[in-house]
Give the backbone structure.
Amino acid sequence: MEYQSGGQVPGASGLLGEVAEAEAALRAAAERSGATGGEDLAAGFDAVVAADQKIEPRDWMPEGYRKTLVRQIAQHAHSEIIGMQPEGNWISRAPSLKRKAILLAKVQDEAGHGLYLYAAAETLGVSRDELYRMLLSGRQKYSSIFNYPTLTWADVGAIGWLVDGAAIVNQVPLCRCSYGPYARAMIRICKEESFHQRQGFDILYTLARGTEAQRAMAQDAVDRWWYPSLAMFGPPDTESTHSAQSMAWKIKRFSNDELRQKFVDMTAQQATVLGLRLPDDALEYDEGSGHYRYTAPDFAELMAVISGDGPCNRQRIAHRRAAYDDGAWVRESAAAYAAKRRERAA
Ligand code: BYC
């Protein structure tokens, strides 16, 4: 595997190919005549899912399907928005104008992803404001990963390489999700995420070839972000509450452990190109299975972080609440303006 600064992350082009194939499949599904179940709504839903066509907002769907999608899409949207904080921490301290411009664009992209996803969730009959309030009151979650601090500039590189890398591996299959608005949003998001991963890889590549101190800083960041990144994929399959049903509905296409393994296989090879070490003595390629053996993350830690006890949970939510309160006048002015326009038009 070779790398040229600014180029594609080695071993990641296959994922972009999968996004392109999913995009073509989405178009083909839209053109195929609709699968039906006659008068029976539930049979109609099952037929559409079985035929790999898409469920659209106006279609009948089981209440559990709708609820699962609202939970997952909202959690995903919240993750994008909260995910702006750890990186935002470094915008004013990026080491060059170029790095600063790139990071600014990346953090703006995350806001955009949040918006596509809130819009996709709204097609299921919930408002963005409701979802936002559920985040702020702790009734809905966001990804565990954003509860860890960004201590050095190298953390921005590690987030791009490992966190965005894990995000892509998890999200490319969502481009084939059975719910049309979510699948379409994911196509665009995945294309952008692949640039995000490139910027992280490029930061680490540069640091790993810099001074001894820069190299040590890069290694330290990888040491701290590796296991939290593995934990992003969720609990092991044996403890995953939603996987079986979500896979039957074709919301999820692969299990948590399958995707975690795919991420390890991809990342272990990229680490050798970077010249950095993944902090796992047990990491080893297994000829027989064609996969890397690895040490699982500490799932008790994942559960503690998910339930509010990570290093930065309180800080992240306090920051979001303050931003929500500070923005009240903008929402009120926009609503007053819209009401005035409606009145004038009437
Ligand atoms: N963090 O039954 P399971 C990004 C929860 S954004 C928190 O396996 P499921 C990026 C889970 O919700 C990254 N909670 O659940 C942005 C469930 O909760 P309930 C976000 C987690 O849904 C900015 C319970 O544990 N990506 O990459 O089948 C900058 C049991 O789990 C986590 C997405 O949201 C976790 N890590 O599978 C850079 C992708 N893991 O029932 C990067 C979409 C599990 O108690 N989401 N839980 O409420 C998914 O693919 C799935 O929801 C998951 C979990 C694989 C995450």
